[in-house]
Amino acid sequence: MKKIIGQVTPEEKDEIQMLFERRNGLNELAKILTADNTELYEKLVKDLGETGAKFQGWWDRMATKYQWESVEGGNWEINFDTCEILLVYPEKGGAL
Predict the structure, then answer these.
(1) Helices 10-32 and 38-66, axial angle in degrees (round to 10)
(2) pLDDT at 13
(3) Any domain includes 70
């Protein structure tokens, strides 16, 4: 189930969208890159780690700033078109 729990500014949305796209691009590159090219592989691993940390850091900062609702087993998503933040949670026989 999904529930709208907040909204971020267009600037905040742009920041996470850039990180989201970078992370996805790096993950796609990781699928085709082999460890044979050690230098490139090490750079990819480093970039993946840094981007992942920045991505998680954005969610942590925004959750603190906006005090978003959370539930055990749930996660947040952003709608890039509307800047809305959604709480995604498993359905347990009814709404929260």
Answers:
(1) 150
(2) 98
(3) yes
| Tally of domains within the chain | 1
Query: Would 40 be classed as within a structural domain?
Result: yes
State which amino acid sits at residue 11: E
Rounded Cα distance, 14 and 80, in Å: 8
Give the H/E segment covering residue 67: none
Please name the helix (run of DSSP H) or strand (run of DSSP E) that holds residue 94, with its range, or none.
none
Is the CA virtual torsion 58, 52, 21, 47 positive or negative?
positive
In a domain, 52, yes or no: yes
Q: What range defines the domain where residue 26 resides?
A: 2-88
What parts of the chain have a pLDDT lower than 50? Answer: none
Query: What pTM did the predictor assign?
Result: 0.87
Is the Cβ–Cβ distance between 26 and 19 less than 8 Å? no
61 located within any domain: yes
